[in-house]
Amino acid sequence: MSVDSETIEHMFEHVLSLPHRNSPVSDNRAATLGLLRQNINRLEHGQLPSPALPVIPGLDRLFPDGGLKPGCVYGIPGHTSVTWALIAEATKRGHQVATVGSDHLGFRAAREYGVVLDRLIVLPRLQQKLWSTVASLVDVVSLVVVHTDSPPPPPAARDTLLGRARERECVLLVAGPWPQVHATVSVDAMRWNGLGQGNGVLTGQTLTLRYTPRHGAHSATITLIKDADGVRVDTTDVSSVRWLTQREPFGHTAGDQREAG
Amino acid sequence: MQSRVCVVWCPDWPITAAVCDDDTSASHGTPMMIVHGGQVASCSVEARNEGVRVGQRLREAQASSPGIIRVPFSPERDQRIFDRLLSALSDVVALAGVIEPGMIHLGASGLARYYGSEEEAARVVSGAIAAFGVRTPIAAGYADTLFAATQAARLALHAPGTVLRVAPGGDRDFLADLPVECLGDRDMAALCAPLGIHTLGQFAALEGDQVAERLGDRGRLLHDLASGLDPRHVVVADIPPGSEVVWRSDEPCESGEQLAFLVASSAQRFISQLLAARFVVQAVDITLIDDRGQHHRTLWSHPRYFTASELTHRVRWQGESLAPSRADTEYGGGITEVRFVASRPASAAGYEESLWGNAHRSAALSHTVATLQGTLGHRAVAGVHLRQGHDLTDSQQRLPWGDHRADSRADQVDYWAGQLPAPHPATVFSQPLPVSVTDEAGHPIDTLPVGAGLTAAPHWLVARGNRRRVTAWAGPWPVMERWWEAQHSRFIHRVQLLDDTGIGWLVTTSEGDSGWVVEARYD
Fold this sequence. Notes:
The structure holds 2 protein chains of 2 kinds. Chain A contains 8 helices and 11 strands.
């Protein structure tokens, strides 16, 4: 435990060295460049918040924010299919994604879900340096998937990590213990087609996902179908997104909840 | 005004490189030859005087010169020593292009203007090359086109002062008398001889369009060359000064850690020299030389460009990787010399941060990846590379981030006999997990010989005391792995199972082995 807390204390050290290295030759222009960028940013985006990280078309209806909200932690189940389904669209749109902590990944299935493997950085199962590694990655990629069975970092370090993730607009998907996630995505039901008693072969998968936010009793489900034609949301079911206890509609947008700074 | 090209040629460069390199037995003034593929690839002047010729068979060469020394064939050494020569030349010429190791081309107009005349410029360049340690006569040729200048340089050895100038506008006349073989295209030479075309002049007299019609683009290019119309642009690059840095120590250094510490300042000097010349380096050739004179060479590439500390990490990894190999050879003290050679310098301008901020994240990403590779190990931060194969784990490789992109063409994996059909399992175990597959009564199930099926329908899947009921199954599908290698061939049977929680499993058993393992999970 002492090792862990020490690691966590040092977890953001590398951040200090970052700005000095942006430009190989001329560091003195960095300030001017930053100012220009700020101006461009203001002109282009006004004060609009950055949009949510995209998910597979149709699946966005499951998420009140229209996708994965930057700076938030989502709890995900151990089913690897769910990981691939959630990160696929982001990699397609050019976002860099990292996965840490799992040595048992099927990358061909990932490609079937639409994951662009060139945009996937894979790190193995780590013992002590897990959270410091995640902290480094949060800085530079749009989404980090963490598979862990070790305890989450202590509250102070967790807040720092989350603050960093918010600032860098990075989404964390954690398969493992994490207190106070923004929301949980879980598997309600999974069905495979094609296999009989001694005959056939697995052909298609039906996956019912449930979205449960931290606050509020409402949760929603959606059904994904994956077969030879690809991945899509089940549209035969008219109310493919079902709010199970709909106390209040998801009227708010990402912007309403956004913290200043 | 027509621009002029100068070609400078050091004949017998492989021999010269061997003499200049410290680690071979070659010495100047003795008959020497380099043999490749049973034929003499290169020989020294002394050997030539004794009757040895390039292209001769090894036996004939040894017969004409009994005392001849055989120098190992090493294109890498030729290139390496030539790169060093180029660095040395940076004092006298600003820009040079390499045609092959031993031959460079220079933009002649500026050179002649600066040194007064073309002859004088050639003298200065030759002097600099001789000062580097090249003892053979150095030839220089001037012409309007690159091809003519190259031919002039080859003929210049017999010209006074070893400089041959083709007068401006005289390329076509100069080339006209040369044999067709000068084009360096054996097929074309063989084609021309029966047609009665023996000189470049005769070849150039043919109608250009007709040559192109019959011989395609290659024919047109050769025709243009022969006509003194070299369409190739003369591309010359800045010579990066100091693209090699050497660290030496009297005390052999044994551990990689210690070595990395010692070379840190050399690495810093190497990078800052290049940066001062506005170059960044994406690939570095690091050679560790131990106290027995053995060379351990590795080419390291970087997704972006190296910094001094990253370079130091590479030295440490390389030093550490040597440690196991040391155990089995009688190895002395340790490393006494480290050489850095920039093998892919790129202009730093391409790496400046862009105004629009696109490059920002990727720059930071490379930096972070490099840092993590430094602390977790080079292979720990990986990209995915899919390739063909029966074995699920083998067919998806994790390659160090940065190296994996070099080979992304294999990303479109076609059908491979015996491969698992889509959909593929989302979870693939890096180490297959032992399980047992039993029938209703709990008796283990086995496969019948020659793909005749299973001894009973699977009913339970048992792993570490947990038991799941099998609701559907199919198989077994036989797969022969490595059938071409008797010792390693393996005959396996695969079965797909579905348990009562809706999760699919891929279980496998080997021929002659009653146990089952889980290869992958469809979850």
